[in-house]
Amino acid sequence: MLLVLCVDLDDDLGRKAGVETPVIGREAVESAAVALATADPEDSDANVLFEGIHLYETIEDETVEVAAVTGTDGGDVAANREVGREVDTVLASLATGEDVRALVVTDGAQDESVIPVIRSRIAIDGVRRVVVRQAQNLESVYYTTKQVLDDPETRGTVLVPLGILLLIYPIAIVADYYGVTGAVVFGLTSALLGLYVLFRGLALEERLDALAERVRSGLFAGRVVLTTYVVAAALLVIGGVSGVELVEGLGGATTDPNAALLIAALVRGSVTWFAAAGVTASLGRVVDEYLADRFEWRYLNAPFYVLSIAVVLYFVSGYFLGSVPLDTLAAALTGGTLLGLASTLAFAIAESRFPRGPEPT
């Protein structure tokens, strides 16, 4: 059995003609088509219904039935679901033992978007598109363009660069009013466009979204590490400034400082601040792991490692600057090494004696 199925995705039958759907049978579909054509002679869905009737009357080599189904206004997912429900109603009303196949009749690309929904319920023999001859491709072009512009990926890839380019002329006019040369305007616009293309090409928007989501979830979850990371970042900035100031002071005190002295001065001036930043960040992470019941003793190694590395760098840089004697440097290197080894051994023993997780069975 062949079912000629007329599809009206945006429910013009119900909204304009007040016809209840689904409509099943030749007489009922004809009445619905006349009602819709009377309510809105320019509606192309009336042509779909009349085409369904025409196919019903011309197919003579098998049993044929004609029906019309509608979606909802808007043509979105809800409309597809409504079409699926009405197709189920039509199939349930066909009291036949034959295999039912469908010939779908639509008026363009928008209605054809529901074909996968229909195919999931009934085999489709073909699709017949009914378009007014004077504008055969107009609706398809319209809906294809509409779908492209509705796609977020397409909007971001095409429309944003186009918008930036279209802004060049008005920006140039405003800049000229304030005495800014056109070269500056074109340079800034080119820089914006280049940054946007680079941003999209490297998929940085996904990384920023993921970072924002982690920060947001961390704020709502009360994670200590967010505060300690901010403090650590501030300490790193202070340390960098302190190191640069010491380098500038060394340049004023020494007539010809070499690269080793400059690096040593930079390390000497910043290492204490950097060590404070590392200890702060690691302690925040330890506290979060403890609150989340994921704490392990070896996590406490991190601040001690930071301190041991800081001690070694501080005294090595001091030795190069001539403020630390060799025996003091040797003691500092030994002390830093012993500090790291002692913390590793102590927390390994603590983890074996006082395990945090459940004991193995």
Write the element-wise H/E pattern from the N-terminal end onward. EHEHHEHEHHEHHHHHHHHH
Overall spatial form: elongated
Percent helix range: 55-70%
Q: How many individual domains?
A: 3
What is the rounded Rg?
Answer: 37 Å
Please give the CATH architecture of the largest domain.
Answer: 3-Layer(aba) Sandwich
Tell me the major beta sheet: 5 strands, mixed
Strand fraction band?
5-15%
Structural class: alpha/beta
Low-confidence stretches: none
CATH topology group of the largest domain: Rossmann fold
What's the N-to-C terminus distance?
66 Å
Q: How many β-strand runs?
A: 5
CATH class of the largest domain: Alpha Beta
Number of helices: 15
Structure described in brief:
With 361 residues, this protein is of the alpha/beta class. It is 68% helix and 8% strand.
